[in-house]
């Protein structure tokens, strides 16, 4: 898939970058971002980026830092340039000079189970309720929800096939009986309306041949949260955070949660241990289990037998 508009002249170097990304099945959004970020580096150089030196790379990152470029943006540029230097230019020496900037991770916003129920019930259509229920009930990313097709629901094995996950990774997500019942209700309504087909999108957009947009799903969550009188700032990913946290609180092994979420690193899943409040409350403090309670009054000391010495 190419991200370049037709009839627009493309340099051989940019076309090689596009070919390298297409060969690896990068999504259209990732291709756009990588082309933009490599272009940002070329604009800094004011010459072709294949002529860059290690000092150019260092000066570019220094200029970004001094200009106050946000850390997530700087790290996104690093990812794009590492791919460009390593795969397109075959210059790993330049890639090694790129530095990722560390930043503290904010704790995710997690809704209570009651808040999740209120939010789902506050949606204005069965399609929106079903889509958000998939995000929470299976822990899917918003892009994964949008790209689901009807055939991805495997009712026999009680699985949801995620074929368009982050990084193009395939995985199976859980399908609960209640979620399956809701999806079957949506199938009956959508099929009757003529917008759902066996080989079509599970959640079509305004045009039945196109999937619902992630932006639309974000608006649905925000509007439902307002209707449910949830004052915290929430989005589709909040439902995924809540899914993982609630499973952890229910005692599900963290490595199973890692697999369900499609996390490559366990440390990303471990973040939810910091917001699993039920898990924290279930732990008995050592203060409550001493050999002898520290709050018990001390027993009287035995009388001292040494004359003239008071206990």
From TrEMBL:
<keyword id="KW-0229">DNA integration</keyword>
<feature type="region of interest" description="Disordered">
    <location>
        <begin position="292"/>
        <end position="311"/>
    </location>
</feature>
<dbReference type="InterPro" id="IPR004107">
    <property type="entry name" value="Integrase_SAM-like_N"/>
</dbReference>
<feature type="domain" description="Tyr recombinase">
    <location>
        <begin position="106"/>
        <end position="285"/>
    </location>
</feature>
<dbReference type="InterPro" id="IPR013762">
    <property type="entry name" value="Integrase-like_cat_sf"/>
</dbReference>
<feature type="domain" description="Core-binding (CB)">
    <location>
        <begin position="8"/>
        <end position="89"/>
    </location>
</feature>
<dbReference type="InterPro" id="IPR010998">
    <property type="entry name" value="Integrase_recombinase_N"/>
</dbReference>
<comment type="similarity">
    <text>Belongs to the 'phage' integrase family.</text>
</comment>
<keyword id="KW-0233">DNA recombination</keyword>
<dbReference type="Pfam" id="PF13495">
    <property type="entry name" value="Phage_int_SAM_4"/>
</dbReference>
<dbReference type="InterPro" id="IPR002104">
    <property type="entry name" value="Integrase_catalytic"/>
</dbReference>
<dbReference type="InterPro" id="IPR050090">
    <property type="entry name" value="Tyrosine_recombinase_XerCD"/>
</dbReference>
<dbReference type="Pfam" id="PF00589">
    <property type="entry name" value="Phage_integrase"/>
</dbReference>
<dbReference type="InterPro" id="IPR044068">
    <property type="entry name" value="CB"/>
</dbReference>
<keyword id="KW-0238">DNA-binding</keyword>
<dbReference type="InterPro" id="IPR011010">
    <property type="entry name" value="DNA_brk_join_enz"/>
</dbReference>
<protein>
    <submittedName>
        <fullName>Tyrosine-type recombinase/integrase</fullName>
    </submittedName>
</protein>
């Amino acid at each position: 898939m190419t991200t370049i508009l037709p009839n627009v002249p493309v340099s051989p170097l940019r076309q090689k970058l596009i070919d390298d990304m297409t060969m690896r099945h990068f999504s259209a959004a990732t291709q756009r971002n990588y082309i933009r970020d490599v272009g940002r580096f070329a604009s800094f150089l004011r010459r072709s980026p294949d002529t860059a030196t290690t000092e150019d790379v260092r000066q570019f990152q220094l200029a970004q830092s001094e200009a106050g470029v946000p850390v997530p943006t700087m790290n996104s540029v690093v990812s794009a340039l590492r791919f460009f230097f390593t795969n397109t230019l075959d210059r790993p020496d330049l890639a090694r000079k790129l530095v990722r900037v560390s930043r503290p991770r904010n704790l995710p916003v997690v809704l209570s189970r009651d808040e999740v129920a209120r939010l789902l019930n506050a949606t204005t259509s069965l399609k929106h309720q079903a889509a958000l229920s998939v995000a929470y009930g299976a822990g899917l990313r918003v892009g994964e929800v949008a790209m689901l097709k009807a055939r991805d629901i495997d009712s026999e094995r009680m699985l949801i096939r995620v074929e368009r996950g982050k990084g193009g990774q395939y995985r199976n997500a859980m399908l609960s009986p209640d979620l399956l019942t809701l999806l079957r209700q949506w199938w009956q309504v959508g099929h009757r309306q003529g917008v759902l087909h066996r080989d079509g999108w599970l959640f079509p957009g305004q045009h039945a041949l196109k999937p619902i947009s992630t932006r639309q799903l974000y608006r649905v969550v925000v509007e439902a949260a307002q209707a449910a009188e949830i004052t915290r700032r929430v989005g589709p990913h909040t439902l995924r955070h809540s899914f993982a946290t609630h499973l952890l609180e229910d005692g599900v092994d963290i490595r199973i949660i890692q697999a369900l979420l499609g996390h490559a690193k366990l440390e990303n899943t471990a973040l939810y241990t910091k917001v699993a409040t039920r898990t924290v409350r279930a732990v008995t403090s050592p203060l409550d289990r001493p050999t002898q309670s520290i709050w018990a009054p001390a027993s009287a000391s035995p009388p001292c037998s040494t004359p003239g010495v008071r206990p």
